[in-house]
Amino acid sequence: MAETRAEKTTGILETDICVIGAGSGGLSVAAGASQMGARVVLIERAAMGGDCLNVGCVPSKALLAAAHAAQAQRDAAKFGIAALEPQVDWIALHAHVKGVIEEIAPMDSIARFEGLGVTVLRETAKFTGPSEVQAGETVIRAKYFVIATGSRPAVPPISGLDAVPYLTNETIFDVMGSIGHLIVVGGGPIGMELAQAHRRLGVQVTVIEQASILPKDDPEAVAVVRDRVIAEGIDLREGAALTSVAATAAGVEATLSDGIVTGTHILIATGRQPVTEGLDLEAAGVAFDRTGVTVDKHLRTANRRIFAIGDVTGGYQFTHMAGYDAGIVIRQALFKMFWAKVDHKAVPWVTYTDPELAQVGMTEAEAAKRYGPGKFQILRWGFAENDRARADRQIDGFVKVILDGKGRTVGATLVGAHAGELLLPWSQAVQEGRKMSALAGLIAPYPTYSEITKRVAGSAFIPKLFSERTRKLVRFLLRWGR
């Protein structure tokens, strides 16, 4: 990994922007501001690229790609090809995951950012006042500061857990050997993605979720994912409370409200918490609590010279939202666009299970709460009606679109093959409040999954288009027209 140099300095550094944290949000601010002419100091105490590159998005998607390849061998019979049980080389698999990280790492490296003119300090940062940060032996004074320290796995107070060598997303990718039985605690996106990936790689998997899996998503869409993972052999324990864990000779024993589960490894995937310790935020006059740094709609903290972005604010914990936040901050710090503010009406997210589950804007339940029964419209189209999905044997899933009383798009739920790739036009539709005519009139190439977008949009006009009134009009025009 190209992370060999960093600015070594002592004394006082005067700069325009000081960024604390070299994850996706901090790197976006540093790169953008520096290339636009600002003096930038970037402080990072750990690995460049943060959680996403090193222990989050990148390794998990590399693992999912390997799991998809393994599952393709099992599912080959539906295409007339002999099915095989895949043979997994865990050492080679580990090398694949690490190799993907290493291929992407140069874009986030110290060398690249120093090449952009950024001063990079490999130190722990702490505020010593409202306009000053200490990083090792260096004091940084800046016009603006950006807190982008991200989040880390939240570990719940489970009895006995402190005596068990548990895994999180920060450590599971370092397991070099095979895993016999993985117990996953938590049925959110991280838990479900890693559970399905390991199951497809031949691992026995149990998921323990005290409520329902993927609770922030549309329940109807979640049901499609649930059916698939159960069919693939995951032991899904929803509504089960984990009361204690204990180490055993074979690994770990988990005691639930409805029984006992034994496994070789246990993964804690019960959410995340903001990283604020050690920053001495009180010295800077920055308000925060256990949910994160408090910011206003402009991402300003209680100290107007200090912004906070990404996971550390306790908001949407997505890499793309950290990048979005970075843009808001750059507009204010560099161009004095102090009216720039966040707009969360079209925040997209994707859970990369198979089938994928994607969401933007309101869910059906949120629309019902906002508008009331009968005050909004639901459009839907199933993947089973798409010819490409039929050819690929990927017919599970649907698109559900929410329109307000004026026919404007306010939300979309997609579950099915490539749902994340199909989400972008719906994000634009929600952001701009588009009506269905904008999408229904597009020409979609055949046969593609993108035809689903056109079909569901066109379904808004079917009742009127094929009504008795339309038939009478057509008969009249054919009879009396030229």
How would you describe this structure to a colleague?
It holds the Pfam family Pyr_redox_2. Its cofactor is FAD. GO terms for molecular function: flavin adenine dinucleotide binding; NAD(P)H dehydrogenase (quinone) activity; oxidoreductase activity, acting on a sulfur group of donors, NAD(P) as acceptor. Helix content is 32%, strand content 24%. With 482 residues, it is an alpha/beta fold. It folds into three domains: 11-48 and 109-152 and 273-335, FAD/NAD(P)-binding domain, CATH 3.50.50.60; 161-271, FAD/NAD(P)-binding domain (3-Layer(bba) Sandwich); 348-465, Enolase-like, domain 1. The strands form six sheets. Strands 1, 2, 3, 4, 5, 6 and 18 form a seven-stranded mixed sheet that branches. A five-stranded antiparallel sheet has the order 19-20-23-22-21, with helices on both faces. A four-stranded parallel sheet has the order 10-9-8-14, with helices on one face. Helix 1 runs parallel beside helix 9, helix 3 crosses helix 4 and helix 3 crosses helix 6 (189-200). The protein is globular and about 90 Å long. The protein starts with 10 loop residues before the first strand and ends with a helix. 43% of the residues are buried. The mean pLDDT is 96.
Q: Provide the CATH topology of the largest domain.
A: FAD/NAD(P)-binding domain
So what's the oligomer here? single chain
Query: What is the averaged pLDDT score?
Result: 96
- The number of distinct helices, counting runs of at least 4 residues, comes to 16
Instruction: Count structural domains.
Output: 3
Shape: globular
Detail the poorly predicted runs. Answer: none
- The count of β-strands is 23
The CATH architecture of the largest domain would be 3-Layer(bba) Sandwich
